[in-house]
């Protein structure tokens, strides 16, 4: 940020904020300057402090220790201000008349909805037509802030937040009394980068808001200096993973591409980029991305497996099996590869080989309900119905709400003309997914019991015998 002029339009004129002249950048010098500024401030004043989220609490604690005569309070905005009314949030704070300094953090949460998808990853996100509601309020209510609040406001923001407010809330920003930078050193940046590494399965369990919060933290570190290319690449891929978990696949691909700018041989980025492309249905492009991952890491079993899935989805089953075999060459206990290999073999009519593949998957994960179910389908296709039922029962043992297995069992009993069991198991399937009622109306497996009044009543609840 230092040294980068920011154009601000006001009353038809354009001015520039010169960060070199306006910002103190050395951390200790910034701190002492902030202390002096707070000491001599009386009445309303407005400071902007750039620092990473993890440093905010430490900074407040240090200021409270060094300036015990000043009553300090924190307002942490934990979510977007939907109405944009920051004034009202401040006006309802306790001990308002006694406050000397109010620290406000989390304002970036109210900017996110107005930033292009991907948060900083696509184009010039400052030039969107809409102004965040909170900034519109700040522009319009700046006199009320000055007249009603006779204390010092200290806004904690990252580099993006400060620049965004300068551009989109110039009326309010022009009242600033100072800007103070606390730029982390390379060791701190490295530590923060490491702390932001997470697990994709964990991201899947998070809420949308939790994912946005983590993306914001990552973006804040990305805007800091003192980074190595590897650190930048790891942050971009982490951001891409979170966006993928949030099903924002286009933005995720943009993030993976940024990771690859810093580290072209980053095989995980190529692989995850392929996954996002695959989720968008762009299977051919996904395969190309997997191939790039394998160019840099030929024994990358995840890429071989994902490549097999994309090939299978395109109907290229033989090639898919070859890809699964490569995955299994490098990871023999890869149960998902054994299962999907079985699916590809089954689609080609090689049911016995498919069953062998499912058995291998179950060898490594005996409670693998998908493999039990798929094995049941292959056994059923071979006419080994009793064995198929046993396999479906194993699937249901480990996943009692597995509606596909309930329905396939019902079909078997329908073929046997076992009305009682057909109705009981079909009822289980319908309870889990009502679509099975419509499927059963035309499924030939139930032809032998279709005229039974109990069966007709199950398919047509309004039926009267």
TrEMBL record:
GO terms for molecular function: transferase activity. It comes from the Bacteria. TPR repeats lie at residues 233-266, 267-300, 301-334, 335-368, 369-402. PROSITE patterns: TPR, TPR_REGION. Transmembrane segments: none annotated. Keywords: Repeat, TPR repeat, Transferase. It holds the Pfam family TPR_17. This is Prenyltransferase.
């Amino acid at each position: 940020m230092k040294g980068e002029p920011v154009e601000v339009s006001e009353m038809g004129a354009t001015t520039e904020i010169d960060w070199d002249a306006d910002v103190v950048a050395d951390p200790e010098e910034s701190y002492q300057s902030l202390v002096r500024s707070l000491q001599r401030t009386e009445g309303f004043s407005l400071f902007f402090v750039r620092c990473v989220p993890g440093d905010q609490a430490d900074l407040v604690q240090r200021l409270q220790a060094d300036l015990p005569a000043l009553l300090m309070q924190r307002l942490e905005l934990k979510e977007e201000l939907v109405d944009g009314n920051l004034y009202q949030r401040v006006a309802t704070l306790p001990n308002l008349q006694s406050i000397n300094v109010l620290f406000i953090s989390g304002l970036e949460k109210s900017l996110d909805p107005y930033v292009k998808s991907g948060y900083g990853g696509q184009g010039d996100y400052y030039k969107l037509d809409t102004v965040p509601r909170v900034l519109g309020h700040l522009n319009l209510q700046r006199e009320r802030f000055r007249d009603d609040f006779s204390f010092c406001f200290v806004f904690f923001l990252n580099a993006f937040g400060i620049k965004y407010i300068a551009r989109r809330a110039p009326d309010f920003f022009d009242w600033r009394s100072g800007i103070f930078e606390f730029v982390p050193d390379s060791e701190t940046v490295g530590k923060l980068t490491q702390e932001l590494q997470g697990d994709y399965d964990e991201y899947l369990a998070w809420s949308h808001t939790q994912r946005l919060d983590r993306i914001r933290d990552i973006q804040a570190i990305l805007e800091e200096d003192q980074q190595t290319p590897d650190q930048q690449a790891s942050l971009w891929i982490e951001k891409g993973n979170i966006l993928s978990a949030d099903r924002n696949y286009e933005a995720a691909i943009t993030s993976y591409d940024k990771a690859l700018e810093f580290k072209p041989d980053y095989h995980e980025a190529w692989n995850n980029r392929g996954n996002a492309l695959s989720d968008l249905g762009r299977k051919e492009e996904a395969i190309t991305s997997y191939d790039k991952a394998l160019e840099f890491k030929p024994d990358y079993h995840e890429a071989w497996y994902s490549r097999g899935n994309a090939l299978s989805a395109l109907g290229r089953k033989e090639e898919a099996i070859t890809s699964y075999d490569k995955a299994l060459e490098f990871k023999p206990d890869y149960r998902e590869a054994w299962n999907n290999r079985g699916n590809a073999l089954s689609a080609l009519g090689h049911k016995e080989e498919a069953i062998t593949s499912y058995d291998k998957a179950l060898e490594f994960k005996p409670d693998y309900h998908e493999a039990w179910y798929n094995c049941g389908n292959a056994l059923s296709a071979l006419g080994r119905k009793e064995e198929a039922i046993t396999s479906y029962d194993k699937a249901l043992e480990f996943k009692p709400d597995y509606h596909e297995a309930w329905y396939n069992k019902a079909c078997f009993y329908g073929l046997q003309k076992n009305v009682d069991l057909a109705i009981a198991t079909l009822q289980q399937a319908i309870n889990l997914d009502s679509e099975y009622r419509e499927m059963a109306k035309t499924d030939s497996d139930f032809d032998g019991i279709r005229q039974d009044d109990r069966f007709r009543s199950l398919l047509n609840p309004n039926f009267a015998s």
